[in-house]
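Need Acetolactate synthase small subunit's 3D structure for a figure. Predict it.
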Amino acid sequence: MNANLLPTGSVYFMPSQTEAEERRTLTVLVDNEPGVLARVVGLFSARGFNIDSLTVSETEHDKHRSRITVVTVATPKVLSQIKLQLERLVPVHKVHDLTQEGSAIERELALVKVAGSGDSRVEALRLADAFRAQVIDATTESFVFEITGKSSKVEQFVALMVPLGLVEVVRTGLAAITRGPEGM
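Structure prediction for Acetolactate synthase small subunit:
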């Protein structure tokens, strides 16, 4: 075929429809068995979406079930597809979009190591007190603080510790639950 005869584009004007991406928190109740986490995470990676936060733990010991909390950013259409495919996985019992359902409580825990002396050390302690961070380890040269709260609070605390001698940060990822008497 002659290259000059190939169509170069559509003859119809179709406006591009780009959905805005949204941050969502999903919880997934699954059987606690090998390979389940890999299958759940695989649904995200197969579509090229990053997981911003991931927490997993057995929550129903007698039934051997775990709760996975995933925070991701995607378009509503893609998130809807992911939820439907998650619900079809055999070891998955329930999927909830806590962001869409509203009124969820979200918390994160971080351990923050800060090294310093003199005024920096005093300022680190003052800020930790203001943020209600607990000193869980102290030496003459460093502190390790434990801070719990919304992710934005943790990020703000970490940012304030940078000029004071931030050494290292370890974060658990988001834990989330709905308000009210109903459970998952």
